[in-house]
Amino acid sequence: MSITRRTIAGRQVNPVGLGCMSLSWAYGTPPSDEDGARLLDRALDLGYDHLDTARIYGTGHNETLIGQTLKGRRNQFFLASKTGIIVDGQKRRIDCKPETIRAALEESLRLLQTDHIDLYYLHRRDFAVPIEDSVGALADLVKEGKIGAIGLSEMSAETVRRAHATHPVAALQTEYSPMTRNPEIAVLEVCRELGITFVAFSPVGRGLLADPALDVASLPEKDIRLAMPRFQDGNFAHNRDLAARFGAIAAREGVTPAQLALAWVLSRGEHVVAIPGTMRPDHLAENIARWDWAIPASTASEVDALINQQTVAGHRYGAAMRPTIDTEDFAEA
After folding, report:
1. Least confident window among 40-49, 274-283, 318-327
2. Would you call 108 helix, strand, or coil by DSSP?
3. CA distance 95 to 84
4. Which pLDDT score, from 0 to 100, does residue 2 have?
5. How far apart are CA 173 and CA 315, in angstroms?
6. What average pLDDT does this structure show over 271-279?
7. 3 state SS of 251
8. d(CA 171, CA 216)
9. pLDDT tens sequence across 42-64
């Protein structure tokens, strides 16, 4: 049995899309614009047809890079972007007021050099603004043809239900991998129930499941993983051991660790798609090469027993970040 193409916002896509964040920010040193452009073009050539970006990625750099590089190939891919995290100088805030959403969308259209974005997400929940008001503003943009569909990122099942009652939600995006099981608390099933596509970001455990030899000591000081408990102190050594054992399972199955992680994520439901990110051409090819491989049920169970909420050490986010996340969380041990 193999995996087939899947649906997001009424459009058939490859279940492995491309998260574009690392081309501008977050993981190590971003590539040059020339190398980033080459990777984007190569992605479309390899069969990637779902690209995911956001205004916050490089404070507009990521959208600009995509717009400049792919404006001549706009009809070849499903384009998703996000708003809601606003940068003011050195400060960041979450702002999903209707007027902020509209202004942000207009700027994204300009940077992306397009007249519409296929899927536009609220990047985070604004607890000061009713979700109904924010979704109502997005609904107006759908009516105007400026966005094709509405998405939510890192939001709870309750928030998803309230939003969906205001206007149909096409996609819910949250971190999901064998290492991060929060979606299994509620949102994975709510998306299945409501016909919402679940978009898994960081499906290879922020790189650790793809590279068990990862050395945090070699990461640049601005790499966001350095602030994450799972990549700190004894937690990291423990988790790297789990990743090494995960890699041994992949070798036995004849796939790479990244391919095993992606297949595991896609096995969680036909409504699930994944958006691994990379800045490396070899990883770009690797991530999509076995997109249709279905993980055997026995192997999935073996992964579940090895890596899960009880066996992974450390929270996925640091203490300062957690209050901004609406997705359900496990009780502290």
Report:
1. 318-327
2. helix
3. 5
4. 85
5. 19
6. 98
7. helix
8. 33
9. 999 999 999 999 999 999 999 99
Give pLDDT, residue 331.
Answer: 86
Q: State the chain's mean pLDDT as an integer.
A: 96
Domains of the chain: 11-211+257-293 (3.20.20.100)
Torsion of CA 261, 267, 271, 274, to 10 degrees: 10
Those residues whose C-beta lies under 8 Å from the C-beta of residue 267, and which sit 6 or more positions away, are 294, 295, 300
Residue 321: alpha-carbon gap to chain centroid? 17
Residues designated as active site: 57
Sign of the alpha-carbon torsion through 101, 13, 287, 177: positive
Chain segment 233-268, per-residue pLDDT in tens? 899 999 999 999 999 999 999 999 999 999 999 999
Asked whether the beta carbons of 266 and 3 are under 8 A apart, the reply is yes
Alpha-carbon span 289 to 256, nearest angstrom: 10
Contacts of 116 (CB under 8 A, 6+ apart): 109, 145, 146, 147, 148
CA 181 to chain centre: 14
d(CA 256, CA 262): 10
- In the chain, the percentage of residues whose pLDDT exceeds 90 is 94
Question: Coil, helix or strand for 265?
Answer: helix
CA angle, residues 40, 174, 197, in degrees to nearest 5: 80
The answer to whether 272 and 195 are in contact (CB under 8 A) is: no
Q: What is the rounded average pLDDT of the residues 257-283?
A: 98
- Cα(112)–Cα(62) distance, integer angstroms: 9
* Main-chain phi, psi angles of 328, to 5 degrees: -55, 145
